[in-house]
Amino acid sequence: MSLQPGTLNAIVTKEIASVITESLNAQLVVERDEALARAPYERSEGGRLRNGFKTTRLMGLWGEMWLRRPALRSGSLSLPLLDALKSGGQHLRDLLAVRFWLRGASTRAVAEELRGAIGAKMSASTVSTLSNALEPVIRDWEKSPIPEGIRYVFLDALYLPVRRPGFTKDQALLLALGVDGKNRRHVLGYVLGDRESKDSWSSLIKDLLARGLDREALRLVISDEHKGIESAVADLLGVAHQLCIVHLMRNVKTRVAAPDRKDFFVDLHSTFWAASREKAVLALGNLQGRWSTRYPKAVELVTRRFDDHVRFFDEPENLWILLRSSNLIERFNREMRRRLDSAGAMHSELEVGKFVWSVSQAQQTRWKYAWKPRGVPKIQEVAHA
């Protein structure tokens, strides 16, 4: 005889629940007898008489269980086991809710899954309230010292909907990631502002400096070409600024006709993936000679700030892949956006803090155990990005 999918699991779950229920019911009877201090049918002058059982519903990890709660004809009966089961079940429910939320599930999804799995009476607002207990941890993290020896800082922003009294508005979440002298990655900090501007980026950088970012150890800031970022970095950090090559390629792509795009990007790769700065300059000359007449605007984009796109050549060669672009922080932002798809609009700045903190903790764990440098992107991947 074959079993339908899920049948064996249902049978095992039911049997486990049955065995546990029988054991708990037996223990409740023991507690009743100990509380009354007399055996069944033994007379007593106290007047506390047994009165059968009342059915009590309890939800557990093995589904719904119906316990037989001993009752008295008058008065109340203390049953420590039942109290502990109810309290423990609630604590377990709360713990699971917060853990699932930290793993990236929305508050609504957490509530629905726990209702379906263990019958927990929970709403999305309850999950949000439970996660608010993390506020002290989040505030400590926001004020924590910057790790020593940060050599490279990546800056980028994304927009997320934040609810304000009477309206919802997209606000800029400005983020900073860092890489230290041992090539370890760190989420350094964030600022929530109305938009990307010099003032908002300055606010973020000032926060990093106040928490211990060392200008002397810092060698490069990596970002896309943004006037607000560049002005704030120049005024407050005074270090070289590496512009993202991937952003440059995306901009160039729109100015080159599709039939020539593959050949153009071969020359572009020869330039920015050259073995040295000197060879990159030679490759740039070849690109200019070949394409200036046909695509002058595309070539102008490549040459206009060439030095700012090749500052990575001054760093150790094993880091060139990392430093050529802002891909490190853009991958982090993609994870943020993935979480936003399920979380929806943020209800407050605390919600934003919980959101950034939870994604950061998960990302730090991934960096700690799984980071490996990526190779040179394929020409086709960039050309068709």
Description:
The protein is α/β, with parallel strands linked by helices. It has 2 domains: 7-134, no CATH class; 144-383. The chain is 53% helix and 17% strand. It has helices spanning 7-36, 80-102, 107-118, 124-131, 135-142, 198-210, 227-236, 245-253, 258-272, 277-291, 296-304, 306-309, 320-323, 327-343, 349-370, 379-383; strands at residues 50-60, 63-72, 150-164, 167-180, 185-193, 220-223, 240-243. A 5-stranded mixed beta sheet has the order 5-4-3-6-7, with helices on both faces. A two-stranded antiparallel sheet has the order 1-2. A hairpin with a 2-residue loop joins β3 (150-164) and β4. It is elongated and about 110 Å long. The chain starts with 6 loop residues before the first helix and ends with a helix.
Secondary structure: elements and pairs:
Blueprint: H1 7-36, E1 50-60, E2 63-72, H2 80-102, H3 107-118, H4 124-131, H5 135-142, E3 150-164, E4 167-180, E5 185-193, H6 198-210, E6 220-223, H7 227-236, E7 240-243, H8 245-253, H9 258-272, H10 277-291, H11 296-304, H12 306-309, H13 320-323, H14 327-343, H15 349-370, H16 379-383
Helix pairs in contact: 2-3, 3-4, 5-15, 6-7, 8-11, 9-10, 10-11, 14-15
The number of distinct helices, counting runs of at least 4 residues, comes to 16
Principal-axis shape equals elongated
Question: Strand share of the residues?
Answer: 15-25%
Query: Uncertain spans, ≥5 residues at pLDDT below 50?
Result: 373-385
Overall pLDDT confidence: 79
C-alpha termini separation: 54 Å
The percent of residues in helical segments reads 40-55%
Number of strands: 7
Enumerate the strands of the largest sheet in spatial order, edge to edge or round the barrel: 5-4-3-6-7
Structural domain tally: 2
Order of helices and strands: HEEHHHHEEEHEHEHHHHHHHHH
**Oligomer class:** single chain
What structural class do the secondary elements suggest? alpha/beta
How can the largest sheet be summarized? 5 strands, mixed
- Our Rg estimate from Cα atoms comes to 31 Å
